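From the shared-data thread, chain only:
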Amino acid sequence: MFQFFSRVRTYVESELNAALDKAEDPVKMLDQFMRDMGLDIRDAETAVAKQLANEKILKKKYDDASSMVAKRQKQAEEAVEAGNEDLARRALEDKQNHVVQMNSMKEAYERAAKDSTVLREKLGEMKREYEEMQIKKDSLKARAESAKTRTKMNRTMSSVDSGESLQGFNRMEEKVMHLEAEAETSEDLRAGSRSLDDEFDSLKKGSAVDDELAAIKKQFGKE
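Structure, as C-alpha cells:
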C-alpha cells in the first residue's frame, strides 16, 4: 500500500492526461483521484493503529516477564536466607523460564517499535503528499473552469457575430431608420401643403408681434 501511494503523483498525472485525451471531465477525474487517495490514507491509518496496539501488547508482556524475573530473584534470595535451598532452587528455575520469555518479548517489542516508527513516518509522508495534491487539484480545477468559461464565451460571441441575433438586430435598426425617414417625409409634405388660411394666420401672428415690438420701442423713444 505504501509503495502504491508513493507512486500516486505519477499515476494521477498520467491518468489526468489520459482523461484529457479521451475528452473526459478533468474536474470530475481530479475529485475521484483525491477520493481514492483519501481512502488509501484511511487504510494506512488503520494499519498504523493496529501496529501501535501490537507494540503496546508486546511492551506489556515484556514488562510482565521482567517483573517476574525480578520477583523470582528476590524470592530465591529470601529462601536462601531462610535456609530453604530447595525453594530457592525452584524460584531460580522459574526465573530462568521468565528470562527466556523476557528476552523474546524484548526482541519482539523492539522490532514492533521500530516498525511503528517507520509506518508513522510513511503515513506522515502520505498526508503531506495528499495536501500537496489537494493544492494542485484546486489549481487545476480553477484552470479547467476558467478554460471552460473562456471556451463557452468564445462560442457565444462567435454565435452572436454570425448568428440570427445580430442579423435580427440589423433588421430592426434598418426598420427604425425607415420609420424616421417616413416621419421626416410626412413633415415635409405637411409643410408643403399648408392652406391659404394657414398662411394668413401665420401672417397675423407675425403682425401682432410687430405691433407689440413697436409699442415697446415707442415707450422708450426708440422709434
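The radius of gyration is 51 Å.
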